[in-house]
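Aim 2 progress update. The chain analyzed this quarter is reproduced below.
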Amino acid sequence: MEKQRKDGEAEPVVIWGMVLDIQATSSIPPHPRTTSPGKIHYVRGGVARNITECMSKLGAERFMITALGFDIAGNLLLEHLKSEKLPTEGIRKHQDNRTPTVCHILDVTGEVAAGVASVEAVLLFISLLFGLFSNIFSLVFSTVAAESNIPVWFEPVSLAKSIRIAAVVKYITFASPNEDKLIAMANTLFSDNMFRPLERNKCSMDTLFQMLKPAIWLLLEKGVQILVVTIGSDGVLLCSKREPSSWRIGLEKTKQLGSSGQLFETVTLSCPSNRYSDAKVLERSPNFLAVHFPALPASVVRLTGAGDCLVGGMLASLCACLDVMQSVAIAIAAAKASVEVDNNVPSQFSLATIAGDVGSVYSAAKVLPNQSKL
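Predicted structure tokens:
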């Protein structure tokens, strides 16, 4: 969504949670019914907060709507926002709220093995803002986004929340599921639960794409304009029924800060925006285009902020008037930076490093063969 400023410019609006993440990493494979040695970290988190901070550090204006409590966790999160000069006007702080908290158990590779989320405060707050919770998204998107021609990004933060796409699918510009959430979203839109979780083991990218294509096609047919499917260490699948020449989202009214303008100039020089607009590409995929962007090699510390930084990086890039292809490359570079630090979002992004990583991803991107849709 966009927020209209008094000066006539627009800025993205991010709606969801700020969370105190309690991340427990076992130093050995954990065993049930007993404790394991390891380390526990308290990390500033929450999907909305992580995306907002990532966008800010890449130079994009943004506005966040969320809720906190009058407690230690809330004070910690709010003070950090103020120290980073991030917007706080959209944050409701109330004595009856408990600040959302999530406890993650991480395995020795940094992946989430299990977790518990206590986010009732933000659910209640958004319910009060937008009406009954089951109708939140349809109300927001149908009355605000669709009527005002505002691009909408749907981030399915969990399997349970991914099914909420049913009420709003025709209003969504972007959706960014991983493989499991893609299947859950497709099953929500198809009454017979025909899509099964993948057991792909080791297979080629073309094979994986053919396995995922029926679910991808269904979401695109139902109204999602652009799918950004994250596939872990294999990177990202970018899929759309739109022609590549139209893959520049209309965000011209968003304000560009200094670093955002630098990002635009750097990426434009190294990654030409017309790479996928030629006739040969359109001949191969006249009604459907899928591009595989590989992941970057990284020295992984933890993976909990990667998805949020991927979304934040892509949103910041779109706000800098880069096209969708260029923006995916930046998103992957931002995600790589996030997994190499202890926090969910790096303390800063090096534009020189980002630019080098973007060039590597963009040049290695591959248009996938378009066989039958089902």
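Residues 230 and 236 are 5 Å apart (CA to CA). The chain is about 40% helix and 20% strand. These observations will guide the mutagenesis experiments scheduled for the next reporting period.
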